[in-house]
Amino acid sequence: MNTSRIRVGIDVGGTFTDAVAVDATTLELLGQIKVPTSHHHADGVAHGIVEALDRLLEQTGCAPTDVAFLAHGTTQATNALLEGDVATVGLIGIGTGPSAVFTRRLASFGKLELAPGKRLPLAYAHVADPDDTAAVRHAVERLKEDGAQVLVASQPFSVDRPEGEQAVLDAARPYGLPMTAAHRITSLYGLHKRTRTAVVNAAILPRMLATADLVDASITKAGVTAPLMVMRCDGGVMALDEMRRRPLLTVLSGPAAGVAGALMQERVSEGVFLETGGTSTDISVVRRGKVAVRHATVLGKTSYLNALDVRTVGVGGGSMVRIGDDGRIAGVGPRSAHIAGLPYACFASPDQLRDARVATVRPLDGDPADYVVLDAAGGRFAVTMTCAAGALGRVPEGDFAHCDPETARAAIAPLAAVLGTDVATAATRILDAGVAQVKSVVDAMIRDYRLDKDTAVVVGGGGGAASITPHLALSSGMEGRIARHNEVISPIGVALALVREQVERIVPGASQEQILAVRAEAERAVVAQGAAAEGVEVEVTVDPQTSTVRAVATGATELRTRDRAHRADDTERLRAAAASLKADPAAVHVLAGTAAHTVYGTETRRRLRPTRHAVRIVDMDGVVRHHAADAHVETTTVAGAPEVLARLVGESTSYGDGGVRAPALRLLLGSRIADLSGVLDPQPLLALAHSELRSRAADEPVVAVLEVRS
């Protein structure tokens, strides 16, 4: 039975603000609203957020007190950097002797280009002794005279000794400026990159603080008692107070919302997610149930900002067809009907397309004059990817981009005549040209992340999904589908996203105590932001090459009920495992299981070589949550796990010139899959496993899945 409690996700785009209400128990979409983004209102984008919420509550018949979770994603920080609409940063460098040489070089950040002709506004001042209050205040006064609106303090090695930066901030506090210290933005070494990340964060801080305060006050006034969360660029959400400290985490968060939707609604565990709009397609990867992230490039420089690895191709549902001098399809895009200011031909009426003839135009000054349009009785229309997909019946009924297939075929027919072929062939050539650009990037990402192409799926989101995803699936041979409610997959992702925090430390030769401390810090951080402590999951990775210990903690703001409308039965789960294993269901066996997951496997006997045991972990919804080409599976209990795991890890650890390599270990505990595969050293691995077992009943079953590393 549905509950009246709802989760609300609001995605603030450049043109529209989309909001959705999702049932907090069944995760069913209950309502969706679209309003213009209020860039020019006195309250800025905050006004559109509140307007969308009000209309959503009215549509669903819910009261503000029914909102169990409220989060929004915004492009405001990204747009501020792209447009150069940022605050002047006052940077205070700290140090004497050699340290002073390095910090004085930080003044060069004033040369960073935000937009053509616009550089990062920065004023620099130096203090030798951070405890000299008079000197610090004199520096602040000079920076204010130079127009500083926000302050950053930076000192070499502040990751280990933050007292100097903190002393500067304490002395500067009476001046009332927003301020931050470089060590608070990232705990990684590298003075130049750490400070640059902090400076860019500070440049957008005043504007983001103002918006946060307006949204917070408006939501509270509306009667919503749920804490307000904000979308991060790595696919999670953070508390508003955390956003006030690190607004840079919202940069590039737009694509992350769609991937969060693919993870939570579509339950993608391995594959590629495409978010297709009218002009472009954002491509990202889900590997083993997690989004792929990396240090992002901001203002042309690498930063310590962990963001979704998203690659954008200039092809979308509205991309216009181009024709060459030889009378063949020369390409698709990058200009779209939106940029050209033209309607799609497939959305015209048959009468409007009467007497249509093919012409070519130059959408913008400087563009080649080879973009195809139809001049017809009803005016000028663009021939687009959506027209071609519609003509081939690739756009399903009810889809945001659905049109009358007959009209779509009529839109392609004049071009087909010019090409000397039939409508279906012309439409296929259009999709071939557009999708080829997307496929090359998808193929590269599959290689980069070593996805198993036999099990990876392609999931399309965004209003233009039908113009790309079905044809890509056909041309690549991969399984593909359009996400449910694809046109609002981003706000759905915001509504369903988990609280996330990442802690990174550079710890040469990290001991198991130090690794556990980083893990505990990440866990505390998400709990402090409202995640239910009982449901927090932490993934730890130790990189021996860079001595980086990384812990990523995720959790929901409430313990989510598992009562869903549908649960897969044994036959459905077996069928899902067999399909993923590319095996006859009769050859697939149940190897182990918990209340939430079942482990299936097959054997492949090879002459003169060890037998391989391919494994799939399937959840209660019938979704494959993990796959391994060769793994060992063993069941024990919490009480027996320490001895069993010590034996298994000891037997599976390899030693060689590359060092010690413990097996990739995953534990099935209760409703969770604890991923410990990021740790290569046996002792910290076992220590982390023990930390996962604490506070659990001695007789609770534990399933260990180990993959030996070569």
Q: Care to describe what's here?
A:
By secondary structure, this protein is an alpha+beta fold. Helix content is 32%, strand content 30%. It has 19 helices and 38 strands. The strands form eleven sheets. A six-stranded mixed beta sheet has the order 3-2-1-4-11-12. Strands 13, 14, 15, 18, 24 and 25 form a six-stranded mixed beta sheet that branches. It has a four-stranded parallel beta sheet with strand order 8-5-9-10, sandwiched between helices. Strand 29 and strand 30 (597-606) form a beta hairpin. Helix 11 crosses helix 13 and helix 16 packs parallel to helix 19 (682-693). The model is unreliable at 561-565 (pLDDT under 50).
The number of helical segments is 19
Query: Which bin fits the share of residues in helices?
Result: 25-40%
Strand order of the largest sheet: 3-2-1-4-11-12
* Sheet/helix structural class: alpha+beta
Overall residue-averaged pLDDT value? 89
The dominant shape is globular
Proportion of β residues?
25-35%
**C-alpha termini separation:** 49 Å
Based on CA atoms alone, the radius of gyration comes out at 27 Å
Main beta-sheet strand count, sense and barrel state? 6 strands, mixed
- Contiguous runs where pLDDT drops below 50 for at least 5 residues: 561-565
Q: What's the total number of strands?
A: 38
